[in-house]
């Protein structure tokens, strides 16, 4: 009920910190595909406004309530929110109900085109992650009403969580340590019992279809956009509702049958492709040599052998490789941060006192951010992520634990997804895989598919099956050169004043989904450079130059945080911090 929702948000206000990304546009993505938002302290959404929505015979009218667009302290801009009841089990429409949180930002144009529904990734990310993109997109496309919702089990939609284990002051704070998982799992089973098996992709897709049917307006278009796991969710929606939407947009594609046990190896493969750009860049090659990939391997081995005692003191003896690959993998995920990965290796290798100070700042920003976990972290659900991931985003049977551990050993870029999953795989109360997990929808509605060729979360070879399965007249598949994950925020173009390329193509598609979007911007995507930005270098290293040491700001971080930083580091929230931060 609505009072429970308001109570939960008010409670969150008590313990959430405060910081602001201020980016204006997000690099949407997932959790395992690193989903997350930027900002922190959660606001109470209890602001009355007129009722609205569609009723219908036997269906309760939707009550839309004024709410802050950003669930943090970064803006007072208002949107509208509603809690919409759906069946816990869709094959029992008259049975128990749960509530799904929906947010909308209505367009301002006199003539509306329709609705665009945005699905966040993860699994486990909140629809609130789209706040900054909604703010931006509503200005450039005022003819569209923008909608998002929390996947069941996330945020305000019956969030799956463990209050004791996620409490401030618990062993791992908001994260859940390996020692806390047994009690957390017991809490989930005590709370939900067999109904934990209802928190699935298929059920969330059924929720989406039911809610769209209630909210859509006659003779208006409805488009569904998904990013990362949100594409997996959108594909499942198309399996259930192949004809409901006007069009579907898939950004950074997670296809049916994907396994997160391949995640780390694939990330490392993209890392090697990325380092080829370093090899061909005069500045980067001057720092790491003619063969930067081999140089990274040498630095890893040297540090493990004790070449930089100060780094070993920071990370812990025997843990150096683990944390170094985590840092490189995390930086690789963001188009603004990835050029800092070779610089981090260069500084580790040089090991001057100023380099160690810069790296300490980097590790602190990543593992112990000012203000603690953001509001978006807290709205997300690690439990939902594992419930879906361990049940259906894997091979069957799952790989042997020793094989998973062995796969990590040679990697230079990784965020430790495989070992984290395998540690819980056998204990988790899995739900059965349904007929949709390995299959594709049969639909002729227009579909726009976009993927970056340097995407470490959904690499191009992972996304490619979508092109061979969506082969209709109005199915369009594009690979974005040099781009990372989440193309609405990671496809900048050189033309002054132009929209991000992903945004341009989205606008073209929703304007006329029966015509292929203009792809000219693909040829105008910015080249990859290794100079960094002095403002972001100050945030990450405390120096204006990301490679070299000069005037250092030793005071607490005051520089502007790189857009998408909180999103990029979310995976680290479930990993014990380096030795010096414990």
Chain-averaged pLDDT:
88
The computed structural class is: alpha/beta
The helix tally amounts to 21
Taken in chain order, the helices and strands follow as HEEEEHEHHEHEHHHHHHHHHHHEHHEHHH
Explain what the structure shows.
The chain is built from 21 helices and 9 strands. It has 2 domains: 2-257, Rossmann fold (3-Layer(aba) Sandwich); 261-372 and 529-581, no CATH class. With 582 residues, it is an alpha/beta fold. A 9-stranded mixed β-sheet has the order 1-2-3-5-4-6-7-8-9. Residues 1-58 have low confidence and may be disordered.
Summarize the structure.
By secondary structure, this protein is an alpha/beta fold.
Primary descriptors:
about 575 residues; 21 helices; 9-stranded mixed beta sheet; Rossmann fold; 2 domains; alpha/beta
Question: Layout of helices and strands, plus pairs?
Answer:
Blueprint: H1 2-15, E1 65-68, E2 78-87, E3 97-105, E4 114-119, H2 131-140, E5 144-149, H3 181-192, H4 201-215, E6 221-228, H5 229-240, E7 247-253, H6 263-279, H7 282-288, H8 292-304, H9 309-315, H10 320-332, H11 340-350, H12 353-367, H13 375-379, H14 382-392, H15 401-408, H16 417-425, E8 447-452, H17 460-463, H18 465-469, E9 475-480, H19 501-511, H20 534-540, H21 565-568
Parallel strand pairs: 4-5, 4-6, 6-7, 7-8, 8-9
Antiparallel strand pairs: 1-2, 2-3, 3-5
Helix pairs in contact: 4-5, 8-11, 10-11, 11-12, 15-16
């Amino acid at each position: 009920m609505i009072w429970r929702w308001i109570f939960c948000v008010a409670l969150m206000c008590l313990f959430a910190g405060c910081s602001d990304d201020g980016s204006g546009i997000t690099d949407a993505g997932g959790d395992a595909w690193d989903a997350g938002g930027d900002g922190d302290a959660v606001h109470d959404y209890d602001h009355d406004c007129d009722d609205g929505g569609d009723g219908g015979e036997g269906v309760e009218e939707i009550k839309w309530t004024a709410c802050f667009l950003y669930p943090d302290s970064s803006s007072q801009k208002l949107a509208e929110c509603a809690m919409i009841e759906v069946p816990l089990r869709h094959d029992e429409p008259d049975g128990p109900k749960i509530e799904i949180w929906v947010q909308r930002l209505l367009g301002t144009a006199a003539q509306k085109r329709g609705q665009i529904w945005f699905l966040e990734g993860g699994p486990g990310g909140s629809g609130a992650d789209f706040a900054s993109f909604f703010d931006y997109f509503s200005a450039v496309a005022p003819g569209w009403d923008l909608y998002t919702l929390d996947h069941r089990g996330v945020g305000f939609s019956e969030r799956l969580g463990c209050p004791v284990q996620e409490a401030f002051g618990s062993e791992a704070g908001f994260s859940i340590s390996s020692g806390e998982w047994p009690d957390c799992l017991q809490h989930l089973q005590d709370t939900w019992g067999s109904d934990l098996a209802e928190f699935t992709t298929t059920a969330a897709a059924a929720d989406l279809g039911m809610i769209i049917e209630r909210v859509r307006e006659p003779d208006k278009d409805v488009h569904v956009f998904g990013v990362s796991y949100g594409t997996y969710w959108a594909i499942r929606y198309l399996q259930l509702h192949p004809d409901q939407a006007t069009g579907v947009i898939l950004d950074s594609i997670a296809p049916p049958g994907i396994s997160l046990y391949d995640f780390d190896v694939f990330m490392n493969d993209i890392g090697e492709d990325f380092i080829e750009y370093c090899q061909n860049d005069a500045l980067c090659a001057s720092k790491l040599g003619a063969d930067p990939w081999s140089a990274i391997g040498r630095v890893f081995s040297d540090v493990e052998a004790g070449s930089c005692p100060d780094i070993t003191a920071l990370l812990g003896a025997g843990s150096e490789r683990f944390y170094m690959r985590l840092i490189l993998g995390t930086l690789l995920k963001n188009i603004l941060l990835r050029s800092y990965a070779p610089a981090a290796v260069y500084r580790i290798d040089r090991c001057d006192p100023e380099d160690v100070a810069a790296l300490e700042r980097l590790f602190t920003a990543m593992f112990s951010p000012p203000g603690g976990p953001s509001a978006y972290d807290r709205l997300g659900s690690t439990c939902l992520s594992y419930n879906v991931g361990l049940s259906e985003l894997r091979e069957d049977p799952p790989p042997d634990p020793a094989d998973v551990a062995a796969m990590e050993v040679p990697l230079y870029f990784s965020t430790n997804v495989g070992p984290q999953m395998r540690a819980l795989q056998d204990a988790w109360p899995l739900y059965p895989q349904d007929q949709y997990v390995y299959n594709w929808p049969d639909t002729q509605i227009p579909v726009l598919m976009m993927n970056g060729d340097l995407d470490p979360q959904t690499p191009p070879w992972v996304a490619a099956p979508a092109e061979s399965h969506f082969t209709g007249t109005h199915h369009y598949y594009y690979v974005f050169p040099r781009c990372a994950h989440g193309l609405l925020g990671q496809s900048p173009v050189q033309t002054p004043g132009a929209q991000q390329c992903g945004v341009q193509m989205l606008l073209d598609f929703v304007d006329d989904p029966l015509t292929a979007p203009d792809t000219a911007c693909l040829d105008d995507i910015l080249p990859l450079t290794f100079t960094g930005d002095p403002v972001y270098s100050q945030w990450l290293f405390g120096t204006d130059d990301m490679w070299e040491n000069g005037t250092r700001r030793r005071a607490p971080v005051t520089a502007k945080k790189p857009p998408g930083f909180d999103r990029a580091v979310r995976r680290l929230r479930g990993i014990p911090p380096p030795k010096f931060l414990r």
